[in-house]
Write a structure and sequence with these properties.
It contains 28 helices and 34 strands. Helix content is 29%, strand content 17%. The strands form 9 sheets. Strands 14-13-23-22-21-15 form a 6-stranded mixed beta sheet, with helices on both faces. The chain has a 6-stranded mixed barrel with strand order 26-33-29-32-30-34. It has a 5-stranded mixed beta sheet with strand order 2-1-5-3-4, covered by helices on one side. The protein has 5 domains: 74 residues, Ubiquitin-like (UB roll) (Roll), CATH 3.10.20; 53 residues, Phosphorylase Kinase, domain 1, CATH 3.30.200.210; 213 residues, 3-Layer(aba) Sandwich (Rossmann fold), CATH 3.40.50; 179 residues, Dimethylsulfoxide Reductase, domain 2 (3-Layer(aba) Sandwich); 112 residues, Beta Barrel (Barwin-like endoglucanases), CATH 2.40.40.20. A hairpin with a 2-residue loop joins strand 30 and strand 31. By secondary structure, it is α/β, with parallel strands linked by helices.
Length: 848
């Protein structure tokens, strides 16, 4: 349609607002409450316009265009009205600096005074020169305020991590409230009180830590003033440059804007142009990058241990020493630990060094708790093609979403945004989990099952679904009949015994899944190989899309280096066991691992950015770069190939992982290790691996969408499943079940919940959750320290009781040891190498 704005004829689409069209065509209309990602609010009233033929004024942010509509955005009456509205807003906002006649020269000479605790003007505010209110004041040419100034004198909230809340600077635009509710689904804050007393706050004025806040920073990013201030930036200089990179702290691959001052990272914020995150981020990417790069535990120079003390040496001396030592060991006497957070180039070199130089198969290429690896296994078992690539935005179009084995609000927060969109559009959300999580409030069905009963539950669900399809006279093939026979051992009369789930609930869920509406299955870690195969079959029976959610930054990329099926190598638990039992004498550590105290280890090399327990026990420590200090290619949860760019220079004598191993290989007389940069390595990967055929540097730099090249779609087949009907046994000595979560709050060998105090408070990472009734029986009160004892013996550290989990269930959030998530896994699972990983073990509790 055609519309006329300020005499200009403009082509417009239906359902666009006047404000949207004006912005697209370079016509300025002031606004403080409007935001591109939020529903219209019409709170600030600054965007009022005149429409021919209509009385009064219309808010342009909420008025959709019509054919031939004539709009005026800048008339004397509108200018006067906007100025009066803005003066009213400023009467309750510290505004002395905004109308000061000397403000142009003030910043240069008085910038340090903003370090004071109370903000009474712009030069005292950390958002100075980054404030939308300043921009609107300048645009409307406000030089005086006709109304008496009122200072609200609201107590500044400083008791939460990462950002302060100073509602004396709040203009009640409602952006923070709306983004928390509409986009993030947390609803941690709201408008409280009425009239002149109205403020933004939490229920009963609780801290954000107690109100369900995700600390994603979305409220800080949309705030147009300095009411919400990031603590780490409060006393910093303004950035002198900004660049972009890909966050590698989880598998999402969000694009971040990085603010830099004199070569140092100040902070990060989500990029509005990011194809994955679309202007949103999570706690880790939003607030932790600076802490990770500037950690006090950074290793800055190579070190060799001599006489039980580390001595700083040159790179030549360190590499020569390591090369000579490693040459002495046979291939079966060496092992390598890889990290799932390194780039494809670094991961490729780690594996090539292990296979071509050390000639060992003792390398941790198979991940623990990997839905992607389980998907590959199910595809191989059923002789089906692997189709794992997807687009996050498509999830919002689903009519049914089934989440198994994951609290995606924590593990995959950007995917959660699209699940929430689907729910808001009418989709049904089904959640299968033995414990309470963040998804319950939006779930149409919560299947609360016994720990370890995932495969049995999914088998029962398939059995009920097949019975429904049979009654609907849907034709069945031989493959389905064969699976029906496998399901025959599952007696419906024993459903509640083995799963703790009522038959009526599963029948309701089966009816939803039988609807044949577009359905998406999202699966995280922890359901085991048989559980995944059962979920694979269920997704085929109800014609749903099954999406395995990789857990770490480059888990998909490193699995893709094996071209779909890792034939050699071990997982981290098996490598540790080899060290303990198989005579491994030399261990090269690039990733996180709990270094075993037993075994025949003679020589340990740690290649890492950070000093930890392993590095302290090592013979040689080689400082490697973080993702912020090196270029690299990563594959995110969708299968999207992304380029993470170097954003700052290398710290002191630190080197990239690929450079260290390349130099070491050359000293050990290895051939074909003549790489000069990551681009050389990527070229070799593309040459050897068809999955990376499109991953050229030129294409990735442009930022276009490039995915791993997968096989052509073939008809998927059902996978064989072995249903083992067993209950998780408890006894008088071991009365509880311990459920171990996969700890995602770490980078390389740095445990973030211990490095960053604010994250530790949010995750409460030293806690065990216990039902209050069980706590009463044990005479343990809320907050009383206890010790968790496993069959292996005592776990490190005291745990704290928190009452919120179903009776008889304990849940460990992240770590009980001082080590990383994978380290904890190696401690908690004393299983033989040929057994399937299980995440349930019996425990007993003793007073600490």
């Amino acid at each position: 349609m055609k519309v006329i704005i300020d005499g200009k004829v403009i082509e417009a689409a239906r359902q666009q607002t006047i404000l949207d069209i004006a912005r697209e065509n370079g016509i300025y209309i002031p606004s403080l409450c409007d935001h591109a990602e939020l529903l219209p609010f019409t709170g600030c009233r600054l965007c009022l316009v005149e429409i021919k033929g209509r009385k009064g004024y219309a808010p342009s942010c909420a008025t959709q265009v019509e054919e031939g509509i004539e709009v005026k955005t800048d008339t004397p009456r509108l200018r006067k009205l906007r100025q009066q509205i803005l003066e009213l807003i400023l009467s309750e906002h510290p505004s002395a600096c905004l109308i000061c006649t000397e403000k142009d020269s003030c910043d240069e000479y008085k910038s340090t005074i903003r370090k004071v605790g109370e903000v009474t003007g712009c030069v005292l505010c950390s958002n100075n020169r980054q404030c939308e209110l300043q921009d609107v004041v300048e645009a409307l040419k406000i030089d005086k305020i006709s109304f008496p100034a009122v200072y609200r004198d609201i107590e500044i909230k400083r008791n939460d991590p990462f950002f302060d809340r100073n509602y004396n600077l709040c203009i009640l635009c409602g952006r923070c409230v709306r983004v928390c509710h509409e986009l993030r689904g947390a609803s941690a804050i709201s408008f409280v009180h009425r009239g002149s007393e109205e403020v933004i706050g939490t229920a009963f004025d609780k801290p954000l830590l107690e109100s369900g806040c995700q600390f994603c920073g979305a409220c800080v990013d949309v705030c147009p003033t300095g009411a919400l201030t990031e603590k780490s930036l409060k006393y910093e200089h303004l950035a002198d440059s900004q660049t972009k990179t890909i966050c590698t702290l989880c598998s999402m691959g969000c694009e971040l804007d990085v603010q830099i001052y004199e070569g140092r990272i100040l902070g990060t914020s989500p990029s509005a142009e990011g194809v994955v995150n679309r202007g949103q981020a999570c706690l880790r990417g939003r607030f932790l990058i600076k802490e990770i790069v500037d950690s006090e535990t950074r290793i800055l120079r190579p070190m060799i241990k001599r006489k039980k003390e580390f001595e700083e040496v040159t790179w030549d001396e360190a590499l020569d020493y390591v090369a000579e030592k490693l040459k002495k060991y046979k291939s079966n006497e060496t092992a390598v630990v890889e990290s799932a957070q390194v780039s494809c180039e670094d991961g490729y070199i780690v594996r090539k060094f292990a296979s071509d130089v050390l000639k060992t198969k003792n390398i941790s290429v198979k991940p623990v708790f990997s839905p992607v690896a389980e998907y590959q296994a199910a595809a191989l078992k059923s002789h089906s093609s692997q189709q794992m690539n997807f687009n996050i935005g498509d999830i919002a179009e689903a009519e049914t979403v089934f989440v198994v084995g994951s609290d995606i609000v924590v593990s995959h927060p950007i995917i959660w945004l699209d699940v929430l969109k689907a729910v808001r559009n009418g989709a049904r959300l089904i959640v299968a989990s033995p414990t309470s999580n963040n998804l319950e409030r939006y779930a149409s069905h919560w299947i609360r099952l016994k720990p370890g009963a995932d495969s049995i539950l999914l088998g029962y669900l398939a059995k009920i679904l097949l019975k429904m399809q049979e009654s609907q006279e849907i034709p069945q093939n031989d493959e389905v009949e064969k699976y029906r026979m496998q399901l025959g051992k599952l007696s419906i009369s024993e459903l509640k015994t083995f799963t703790a789930v009522d038959k009526e609930l599963l029948e309701e869920v089966a009816e939803v899944l039988a609807d044949k509406a577009p359905a998406v299955f999202l699966v995280g870690g922890g359901i085991g190989a048989e559980g995944f195969s059962a979920l694979w079959n269920l997704s085929l029976l109800c014609q749903a899309t099954l999406l395995p959610l990789s857990l770490e930054a480059n888990q998909r990329g490193l699995l893709a280096l094996e071209n779909g099926s890792p034939k050699d190598g071990k997982n981290i638990v098996q490598v540790v066991r080899s060290v303990q039992e198989d005579g491994i004498k030399a261990l090269y550590i690039v990733g996180p691992v709990h270094l075993p105290k037993k075994g025949k280890l003679e020589f340990v090399v740690v290649q890492s950015p950070y000093m930890d327990e392993n590095a302290a026990r090592a013979d040689v420590v080689l400082p490697s770069a973080t993702f912020a200090e090196a270029d690299g290619t990563y594959v995110n949860v969708e299968g999207r190939i992304q380029k993470a760019h170097k954003i700052i220079e290398l710290a002191e004598d630190v080197k990239p992982d690929w450079w260290i191993l390349t130099e070491l290989a050359q000293r050990m007389k290895a051939k074909s290790f003549s790489y000069k940069n990551p681009s050389d390595i990527l070229k070799e990967i593309r040459k050897e691996n068809p999955l990376f055929a499109d991953a050229t540097d030129a294409r990735l730099v442009k930022g276009s969408d490039f995915f791993l090249k997968e096989q052509h779609q073939e008809e998927k087949k059902l996978a064989p499943v072995k249903f083992v009907l067993k209950k998780v046994e408890t006894s008088r000595k071991f009365p509880f079940t311990l459920i171990v979560d996969y700890g995602l709050d770490y980078y390389r060998n740095l445990t973030l919940s211990q490095e960053v105090r604010g994250l530790g408070l949010i995750r409460n990472s030293r806690s065990v959750l216990l039902n209050p009734e069980d706590a009463k029986k044990l005479e343990i009160v809320d907050g009383d320290p206890v010790q968790v004892i496993s069959e292996n013996g005592k776990m490190d550290g005291a745990a704290k009781i928190s009452a919120s989990i179903p009776s008889g269930i304990l849940k460990v959030y992240y770590l009980l040891s001082e080590n990383s998530a994978q380290s904890a896994a190696s401690l908690l699972f004393p299983l033989s190498a040929d057994k399937d990983m299980n995440n349930v073990i019996p425990v007993k509790i003793k007073r600490g």
